[in-house]
Amino acid sequence: MNLWQGEPAFPARPGKVVSIDGAAQRKVVGRRALGRWDPAGRGHDALATILAQNAIRDQALLPLRHGRMAATPWTYYRGAAAVMAADLASAPHTGITVQLCGDAHVLNFGLWNTPERNLAFDLRDFDETLQGPFEWDVKRFLASLVILARNNGVADSAAAAVAAGYAGYRQWMAKYAAWPELDIWYDAVSTEQLVDYTTADDDHRLDAIIEKQAAKRSNRGVFKKLTDVVDGSRRIVEDPPYRTHALADHYDELESIISQYQESIPDHISSLWSRFDLVDAVQQVVGVGSVGMRVFLTLSEERRTGDPIFLQMKQAGPSVYEQFLGPSPYDNHGSRVIHGQRMIQSATDMFVGWTSIAADDETGQRLDFYVRQFRDGKVIPKGEMIAPRLSQFATACGHVLARAHARSGDAEAIDDYLGKSAKAGESLAEFAFAYADQNDADHAQLARAVEDGTVAATEGWP
């Protein structure tokens, strides 16, 4: 192969960016069409879609999942990515693809330490990541602003928040369209930039709050909070049903996960990991959408000094978008998640990896997992905290989402499609409010099913 005659130097791999004429794609889906939502054309029943996800989950935890989702329209939205995926797929899309976060709601943005120990603000959840139309992430993000605002008593600020979130995305996409590719890939949103976005002139406390929370939410901070000495050995403290040592049914799975995980990480990380000994492990319940997926939390200690590290090992199923966009090019869904994360994030936890095992049941169905540090300076926003400054926070999220899409897709094509007029922004805002209403109706459907006993549910939140 002659590398000097314009021939490809390497074979095509997942994530390859194909240039496209963004303005021409308006003939496929006009910008006004972005605002349309037709409940009659969605082609599925929301409750049936939710319940269909239960097949691969731990059946004992399903009532907790249903109870969390039924609590409020916001908790429903957090667990209903599959519902929205089907709804988004019910209408034509632009064909301008990126690596979707897949669940880009406003609380899936947060802070954590980069491998260089610098706090960065970025997307933080990739369970549903897949190549797909850029506007699907934007729609899920903007609709989340309306739903969160309503849920936190600031519904009057929803329109401003949606406008700000879109403006953050639009303005930064225009910038990225003119930047060299390497500059896009090196770009990151620092703590200082987040504070600049979200701190009012008379409020200078946010940076101190972030620093304090990051210090607590570290491996050493978690070690103090979540462990105790039992019979002379360090153990993770139980908090049933959210953390339990009930691993009798999963011991073989855990052993296999840990050993195979080491094969997925680079040699230099494997060398580092070999200096730690496993001390304890518990089964864990996390989030809303992830309840019922097998999740293990492990505690290991560095052999020489006893320094702790917590790894979370989380089951990964197919992305909710795969049935509409085609299967992932990766044969392991944990690998899909981690490769998507690396594509989207400005910097990724160096301990991330993946594995798969055969399920211990009659079907012998394979279970895929991905692995990450449990707490590494992670500062996860809470709705009640960001609600008073939702527009400012939404602007920062829009910036991050634009950078993720520019890294993995064609920034110029997205910029050209959106154009300089207000059409796209107005249409996306129209969709955000219409879909928030749909989410209210879908939540009410689940709540009725729980109330009449059709769907088993338990209350409670850790």
Name the overall outline.
Answer: globular
What is the straight-line distance between the termini?
A: 59 Å
User: How many individual β-strands?
Assistant: 13
Largest beta-sheet characterization? 6 strands, antiparallel
Count, helices: 18
Structural class, by secondary structure, is alpha+beta
Concise account of the structure shown:
By secondary structure, the protein is of the alpha+beta class. The protein folds into two domains: 254 residues, no CATH class; 156 residues, no CATH class. The protein contains 18 helices and 13 strands.
Describe this structure in words.
This protein is an alpha+beta fold. Helices cover 44% and strands 15% of the residues. The chain contains 18 helices and 13 strands. The longest helix is centred in the last third of the chain and has 29 residues, at 423-451. The protein has helices at 46-52, 62-71, 73-79, 81-88, 134-151, 158-178, 181-186, 191-198, 206-216, 219-226, 251-264, 267-273, 322-325, 333-344, 383-386, 390-408, 411-418, 423-451, and strands at residues 97-100, 109-113, 119-123, 130-133, 189-190, 227-230, 233-236, 243-244, 276-284, 295-302, 308-316, 353-358, 366-373. The chain has two domains: 24-32 and 44-215 and 379-451, no CATH class; 218-373, no CATH class.
